[in-house]
Hints:
The protein is built from nine helices and two strands. By secondary structure, it is mainly alpha-helical. The protein has two domains: 1-104, no CATH class; 106-216, no CATH class. The protein has a two-stranded antiparallel sheet. Helix 2 runs antiparallel to helix 3 (73-90), helix 5 runs antiparallel to helix 7 and helix 7 (151-182) runs antiparallel to helix 8 (186-200). The longest helix is centred in the last third of the chain and has 32 residues, at 151-182. The radius of gyration is 19 Å and the shape is globular. The mean pLDDT is 87.
Amino acid sequence: xxxxxxxxxxxxxxxxxxxxxxxxxxxxxxxxxxxxxxxxxxxxxxxxxxxxxxxxxxxxxxxxxxxxxxxxxxxxxxxxxxxxxxxxxxxxxxxxxxxxxxxxxxxxxxxxxxxxxxxxxxxxxxxxxxxxxxxxxxxxxxxxxxxxxxxxxxxxxxxxxxxxxxxxxxxxxxxxxxxxxxxxxxxxxxxxxxxxxxxxxxxxxxxxxxxxxxxx
Length: 216
């Protein structure tokens, strides 16, 4: 994937731009907002560039892992597509914080919350596309003690998880759009309350159930 050649330089340029933008911000800036768009955490402005550093560290860590640990070519091909896309998405949050610091508007902050939810929903859908094809490994996919012990459990669990990520991603995106249209902030909150257990807990319990069924 050609973007692999450019993702690290792009992440570095993004960090430089964030540092330059941060220079013009007040010393204390919003660092977190709740689902209604109200700021519930303030902090020093230089936290923003540290967040902008995360995509760089992700790419460097992945390149180190890729160069020093053998893995199936199939998994490498998937990760070479997935990691750069995730790194691109991780460049966005710092700019949201810059916008929030400059605008100081609850209505704009609320739009930021909705947009972040839409982006995360899209990331879930993207993950749903990739994980059914993963070979068993210890870095990406649904990695429980039971999926790592049995390849059949791995495949069935990750296939189930792909459906759950797809459903969860669509649900979050549609709920975010509903929040924007209706001005009812609880739609997006409820979508996350439902989606997180759906994608985090259900696959783990399923892998346990499937492993015991096969073992017995």
